[in-house]
Amino acid sequence: MSKAPTLFPDEENYFALLSGLKKRIQSAQTKAVLAVNKELILLYWQIGREIRARQQAEGWGGKVIERLAQDLKREFPDMKGFSRSNLMYMRAFAEAWPDEQFVHQAGGQIPWKHNCVILEKVKDSAERLWYIQQTVENGWSRNVLVLQIESGLFQRQGGAITNFERTLPSPQSDLMQQLIKDPYVRRESCPFRARGRPLQRLLLFVLT
What we know:
Elements: H1 11-58, H2 63-75, H3 84-96, H4 100-105, H5 112-121, H6 125-138, H7 142-150, H8 153-157, H9 174-181, H10 198-207
Helix pairs in contact: 1-3, 1-10, 5-7
């Protein structure tokens, strides 16, 4: 026999529903942010690869990067990320990781500035990959990542690379909070925005 309808739902059942919906929304938001970030990292890798290839083929010096920075900022004044130093990081990123699969499997899972920190402070590719993996697994903020690198965590723990888990970072982790607030991903500067609403559009895509 079904229960009689009531205007006031049972508190326990209501909060179970609310909790389930919150988890679903947070999971969708996490997927959306990660998708935007991965596309952004891939774009930076492609820019870096193209700059490096042209410099090698044409014999261009470092001045071309300075000129590109000025012209790109003029063409895309609302977008962040096209400073000379950032273009240099893009070139170094593509040189360090020549295989595009790396972006899809590893580099695209952490914010751009995390990648820059690892590029600058770690020279060995296996060690770099280990710190990316640990960042994803532990949800490290950029400051925590710097601290772990400078304290020699890889050497102290005898770092070993394992397969990346196909799990989402916790929405409450420092890593996700930095991704959400990342000026390179935020709506006003994101190169993938659709009328200023990249995450909302991606959220609709993720939920379908």
